[in-house]
Every structure is written in structure tokens, then in C-alpha cells.
Amino acid sequence: METIWKARDLGREDGETLVEEIVMDCGVSPLTASILIKRGCGSAEEAMAFLEPDWEDLHDPFLLPDMSVAVERILTARESGETICVYGDYDADGTTAVSILLGYFKEIGIHAFFRIPNRLEEGYGMNTTALAEVKAAGASLIITVDNGISAVEEVAFCNAQGMDVIVTDHHECQAALPEALAIIDAKRPDSQYPFSELCGAGIAFKLVQALDQAQGGDGDLMGYLECAALATVADIVPLKDENRVMVSLGIRTMNEGPLMPGIAALMAVSEIEVVNAGNIGFVLAPKINAAGRLGEAGRVVDLYLAETISEAMPIACFLRDENKKRQDIEQEIQIAAEKKVAAEGLYNHLFMVVAGEGWHSGVIGIVASKIQEKWYHPVIVMGIGEDGIAKGSCRSVPGIDIFAALSSCAPLFESFGGHEQAAGFSLAADRIPELVKGLEAWGRAAGARGHLKKTLYYDGEITADAVDEGLMEELSLCEPYGIGNPGPVFKMGEVNATDVRRMGKNQDHLSFTVDGLRCVGFGLGECDARVRSGAVSLLCKLKINAFNGNETIQPMVIDLKGDPLMDHQQAWEWVAALKKEEGESLRALPIWHYPCNRLLPERNALIAVYKMMDFEKIRALPFDDVLSHCPGMNSFQLLVGLNALNEVGLIEFKLKRGVIYGKKCKTNEKKDIQKAPLVLKLKKYLGSTD
Fold first, then answer.
1. Do the beta carbons of residue 397 and residue 372 sit within 8 Å?
2. How confident is the model over 351-377, as pLDDT tens digits?
3. What is the count of structural domains for the chain?
4. Cβ within 8 Å of residue 639, ≥6 positions away
5. What was the pLDDT predicted at 688?
6. Which of 27, 58, 154, 443 is within CB 3.0–4.6 Å of 448 for a Cys-Cys bond?
7. Looking at 39-96, which runs of residues are DSSP E strands?
8. Is there a single domain that holds both residue 553 and residue 413?
9. Are residues 263 and 227 in the same domain?
10. CATH number reported for the structural domain that contains residue 252 in this entry
11. If you write DSSP's letter for every residue of 159-196 in order, what string do you get?
12. How far apart are CA 179 and CA 164, in angstroms?
């Protein structure tokens, strides 16, 4: 995957002056002040609010559309003794939103129950069979959470059955809105709410906040805020504006001692003592999501509504075990999907669409995310059921609106919905080829391929000796980090690494030391040869690593770049030019200042490469993995060698997106690699006679 590094600038002409003002008024370092500006703070006052979020920073809930109507109807239902059904979704956001409303309704004396569709049997959103059951259970009012904005027919069904519907949702609005009594969605075209990026549980919390205000405003809502904070991180919405306030305050109360026994139990089984956005997203939230993915979403509501730790602990243990099951299923599908990507050459498509029979619909979203991270393409993963219906989960890259892409194919779907970067749908499996064709057509018209180069932004350049406790304390002021408020990324230029090691079960990860700092790069194991070859530049985040009671600062490497001869994309361009050009244009290539031993391939290393290939079957070999088996050889030398082996008839190969696809050629003749045209040409221009 090709990456482009860019330094974030202050983005304003008065940036340097504003840095000085923030330093003076907020008592932070110039580095922290610059980070605050890069995160959108336009004044010292805004910077202070960013650093010290407060309950008073929450927006007036009655600014949300139809909030007054919804509050009046709910309080009327309480007065008249009606039964309310909270109709939710099975993910962490939806189950948390259900729990917030149910907990509050119980507190203020409203009789309510919940209905969450089974992910495996019913899929996302409202359905008339479930709604008929809700009616039979005695509900006269349905409140949706984290769904409903596209349920035009289902709301019409409720109206016909004499049930009022209040929709609370945070998803994008489609052309037609349901004819509900109230629709609370900050993304409504007519919304005047100052922030549109709340999650479903965030909207549910705003409804609770409005109900509390309507009754005098003296309720204790901090426990519900804890829940909303957890869901906000889990649903990967931007951690800015009101979301930042909710998450900051929620994490603060969790670390003071969670008010919700269910959250305390979940922290205990996860062995988390100090909560932050990172471990919410990667440790707590997956356990909550796992239940819904595997058809047990109701257990999450049980956890949140537990009144004691002893009641909550068995449920938390159940969720932990369900998450382990989810991980096993996910890994199995991940392996199968990756094989399909390689075998079918899906990396050549704009949209990487992969499907498998029986793939668990509860985990395909995670698989899609991992493939997207690896290849940096929009990805759609589908599980095909016995009924011939494919349920798909989509993940995109910045600049490519997956919801718009799906909308262009709307007639194909039985249902679909989502956001710019993530979406889901169901359609008949025999229409998958039409979907692929339609998405590619949309992508061409939208010029989407221009967004397939990943840009990595960094906030500043630092040296290893500048990394100390003081810097870490400053950076902690800007937490919580997440989408919309990314953790600061720093560039370390031209560092020499020692003690380079691959690590992990599959040797996928990398660790090395730079001036006493132990650096770790997840997913960068194949870059070990590049790091060993000489000075490299790093992009990294800094974290505190606690182990056996000791704390150390650890750079977490996001990306690295080394010697241009080690960059296989650059080397490929140079080798292509070496084969094509002659005379002055060839001499203009920037390779000639390198010594011969850095350009000509080593014979023994090429023998090792040759042995990695088979005669009959084409093997897919990650470029960096092949390079790691050739100590002392750089990318340019490897590519010259591969071309030389090809020219003398020993192998056939091609290089696509960092993967070598090659096989041996059968021959009875003895071949001399040194007589390959490319090697002879390179020697000629080097003036070498070796």
C-alpha cells in the first residue's frame, strides 16, 4: 500500500500568534497549543473548553427536531399508565441506547419493555412480524433507538395498528421520512441542532436529558452518561464537540468508580483499572458487540440494568466468552476472505467485493474493516445464507462515500443503510455481479480511484531524546483520542534501529530500539529487512506501556520509510526505466550515485528466491517477506534479480500491490543470470566488468 506523509499545518494565517495566546492563557507548551489548533480550536477560550470539558458544554436537547413532541408524548404515556416498547439495534450503540431509556423509564415510573431484532434471523431494523408481537404485548407507543429513520413501511404499519412511533436515530436520512409522531435525528435536513454526529445512544441520552429538564432538571444522569460515553467510542463517531464532552465526563466517572454495576463488572473481567478511549474501543466495546453479533443482544441490556456487581459479573463473564467465540469465527472468515482476494485478484478492482456461503453475518463487518486496513480500498464482505440472501457489510476509505455508492444501486437491494464510511445491506445472492458492476461504474464516474493513496498526517517532528514524562503529561491533556480527535502523530527522521525483531504468532509484527526507546509496529513485520538495512524515518504515536508495575514510554510505529532502494514502489519505477531508457535519459536516473554492491543482485540471494517458487502453481509471495529471506539485499537488487531470472527463462513473475506472483519455468538448459540483458545493461552503465 502506497502512503503519503504530510505534516498538518495550523491552517490559518494567524496560527503562530494563536499558539502564543493559547500558551499564555492555557498554560500549555507550544507543541500542545499547536495540536489544539490543528484539532479545530480557534481561540484560547475554545482551547480551554477543549481541555476542560464540562456538563454545561452539553447542548440544549430541545434544539433537536421534534424533541418537545416526544417528551410530551412520553410523559403523557406515564400519566395514563401506557406501556412503551423501546425498539433497538443489536450492536453496542443500539443495545446501550435501549438500556439508557429502559433504565431511566424504570426510574421515573414508566412501564416499558424492549425488542431487539435477532441479527442472524431478522437482520437490522424494524420488521412487521416483530411489530405485531409488540402490539400483542400491549405497547401503545414505540420508541426506536439507533434505527427507524428509513422504516417508512414499518412505521405506517404501526400507525395502522394504533401504535404511536417516536423515531430516535442518528443515521443519514433518505428521501422519504417515516410518518412518525416524532423523528429525533440531528441529521434531518431541517435540524437546527448545533452538532450532527451523535451516535444512537447519544441521541437516547439527549432524550433522557430533555425528559429530566421537563420534570425540573434535578435528576442524576451521570450513570446514563457513562453508558453514552462507552457507546460513543464503540460506534466510532467523531470525538469532538458534544461527543468529546460526553466521553470525557463519562470516562472521568468510570475512573472515579463506575456508577453502573454492569460497566464495573465489564472492567473487572477485562482487567482494566484505568479507562481510556483506547481500551473502551479495543477491549470493552468488542465484548458488548459480540453478544449482538452472535444473537444474544438482550444480555447486554441485562448487564447495563444489573443493580449490583454480583448480579452483573456472570453476565460480564458470558460476554467475555462470547467475544472469544466471535474472535475464532472472525479469524476463520478472515483467512477465507483473504484467500479469495488473492486468488481472484480483487485488489485490481476499485471495490473489493468478496462473498462466502455461511459466513457469519455478525462478524463480516470486522473482516471488512481488516481487509480495508490492509489494502486501502472500499471493501464489501457478504455472507450468503441458505435462503440465497446475501447480507453485506461495507467499509470505505476517506473520499469515497460508500452510502452514495450503494444508493446508486438501490434497486438491487432488499434493504440498505449506513454512513459515508460504513454501511450494510441485504440482496439476492444472484444479483452480486450486478452490484459489482454498478459499484465500479459509480466509482469511475466519481473519480474514486484518486482516493486510493493513503495519506498519513503527522503533527510535528521529534527526536528520541525529546520523548519524556513531561511530553506524555502534555499529550494526555488532549485526550480522549479517536475519530475527529486523533492522537498526535510524530515523525522521527533518519533514525538507526537496533535489536530488530519480528514478533507475534505469525511474525506479523515488528519491534526495534531507537536510542533506548523500544518501538513496536503492529502489522509491520514484513518491514524488518528495510529497518535492518540502514536509517529509516518513522511515523509514530506515543503511549505509556505498563508491565510488571513498571511504566515505559513506547513509540507505536504507524509507518516507516527507509532508503529509496528499499522502497519497492520506487525501485520498481527505476527498474522499469532501466529496461526502457537509453543514453542521457538513462544516465539521468538517480541510481548511479549508489555503489555497485547496492545495485547488482547477489547470486546466493537469488537462488533463495528461486527456491521459494513452485513449478506448476503460481505462488503469491509478499514482497517484503521475500526480501526478508535475502539478508543484505535491497528492493532494487531483488527486482533486478527477479527480472534477470525472468529474462533467462528461469521464472515467470509479476508484481502487484506489494505481492510477487511467480512460478518456476521448466528447462533443461543451464542458465547464467549474469548474462541477463538487464544485468549486462546495468553493469555497462556502472562501468563494472565483474
1. yes
2. 999 999 999 888 899 999 999 988 899
3. 4
4. 568, 571, 572, 575, 655
5. 45
6. 443
7. 83-87
8. no
9. yes
10. 3.90.1640.30
11. HHTT-EEEEE--SPP-SS----SEEE-TTSTT---S--
12. 10
Which among 576, 559, 688 is positioned nearest to 642, based on CA atoms?
Answer: 576
Domain that holds residue 133: 57-322
Confidence class of residue 442 from pLDDT cuts 50, 70 and 90? very high
Q: Are 13 and 204 in contact (CB under 8 A)?
A: no
Both 162 and 304 in one domain: the answer is yes
- Assess whether 95 and 183 both reside in one domain: yes
- Ramachandran angles phi, psi of 213, nearest 5°: -65, -40
Q: How far is the C-alpha of 467 from the C-alpha of 472, rounded, in Å?
A: 8
Write down the pLDDT at residue 603: 83
pLDDT tens digit string along 251-303? 999 999 999 999 999 999 999 999 999 999 999 999 999 888 778 899 999 99
Task: Quick: pLDDT tens for 383-417.
Answer: 999 999 999 999 999 999 999 999 999 999 998 88
Mark out the alpha helices in 377-453 (DSSP H runs).
Answer: 402-407, 432-446
* Residue among 392, 379, 378, 393 at smallest CA distance from 449: 378
Q: Are 121 and 149 in contact (CB under 8 A)?
A: no
pLDDT tens for 527-563 read 887 788 778 899 999 999 877 778 899 999 999 987 7
3-state secondary structure of 397: coil
SS3 112: strand
Q: Is residue 29 part of a domain?
A: no
Lowest-pLDDT choice from 74-83, 412-421, 680-689: 680-689
- Check residue 526 and give left, alpha or beta (phi > 0: left; psi -120 to 50: alpha): alpha
For residue 339, the Cα-to-chain-centroid distance in whole angstroms is 22
Task: Please indicate, yes or no, if residue 28 is contained in any of the structural domains.
Answer: no
What type of residue is 363?
Answer: V
